[in-house]
Amino acid sequence: MVKTFACSFTATNLDARSGVSSVVDRLRTLGIPAARADEVQIALTEAVNNVVEHAYAENNPGNVRIQAELSPERLWVSIQDAGAPYPDGELPEGKPADVNVPAKNLPEGGFGWFLIRELASQVQYERSEGSNNLSLCFEIQVTSPSAEG
Amino acid sequence: MSLTTTMTDGAQIVKVNAERIDAAMAIQFKEDMRTETEAGPERVILDLSEVQFIDSSGLGAIVAAMKQLGGSRRLDLAGLTPMVEKVFRLTRMDTIFDLYSSLSEATAPASANS
Q1: Which residues contact residue A38 at a Cβ distance below 8 angstroms, ignoring those fewer than 6 apart?
Q2: Rounded Cα–Cα distance for residues A106 and A123 (Å)
Q3: Which residue from B33, B41, B35 is spatially nearest to B63, judged by alpha carbons?
């Protein structure tokens, strides 16, 4: 049994926060283990933050749509927006931050894509008809029977 | 964002009274930390026990709060909840800070920690 659901919101920090929370809350009620739901929340937050900060201009936030497709063994979450494409049409490599530097040179950002790539088992990106479609896959062991009904 | 400061022997404890340090509040957190720690003892302990979620913006803001203390003061972290600890561990930022499971552990006499 595959469960699908979706939500849409405006690309602002506060709407992104509640949009991602609503998706993750739904996943929890569908029986995703708590630790995995936490990881989905981290990766999804980073992906949506990128839309808010980079895809849309700050003074003109557009729409973000999250669609989730949960099967017994894996979860696909896709994030769609009509903002600017990723530079050169390619996703960032997501290198780990270099922590072996003097404290004053430590990075204060750039952790997002590293986290996404650490937590998701597959990442796909497609630019089509003026939209960005980013899909993240997570391997799941559903624990509650509610997801099988 | 609300921060509460308590002074103890040799350390300033700053408690974050928020469930999240995320993109929506990272800049505010950094600025509030600057105000809160403008002057004070060499050691600052950030009590994160109320914080249930942090993203890369929040992580960056904590790094920034540490850097703005300057080289002669340090920022220790206490009371990390599981998701916050996970983000620190994944990004290897757990190697940059001294992490304590609770505030009482962070403030225990030094001999007990060694």
Answers
A1: B82, B83, B86
A2: 27
A3: B33
Cα–chain-centroid distance for residue A58?
Answer: 20
User: Looking at residues A97-104, what average pLDDT do you find?
Assistant: 90
Q: Which residue of B has its CA nearest to A96?
A: B91
Residue B91 CB: number of other CB atoms within 10 A? 24
pLDDT, tens digit, for every residue of A8-41? 999 999 999 999 999 999 999 999 999 999 999 9
Tokens read off for A27: 């996943």
User: A-contacting residues of B 20-59, CB under 8 Å?
Assistant: 20, 22-24, 53, 55-57, 59
Q: B95 and chain A: CB distance < 8 Å anywhere?
A: yes
Q: Which pTM was predicted?
A: 0.93
Burial B25-60 (b: 16+ CB within 10 A, else e): bbeebbebbeebbeeeeebbbbbbeebebbbbbbbb
Identify which of A14, A49, A119 has the shortest CB distance to residue B57.
Answer: A49
Helix (H) or strand (E) holding A64: strand A63-70
Per DSSP, helices labelled H in A30-111 are: 34-50
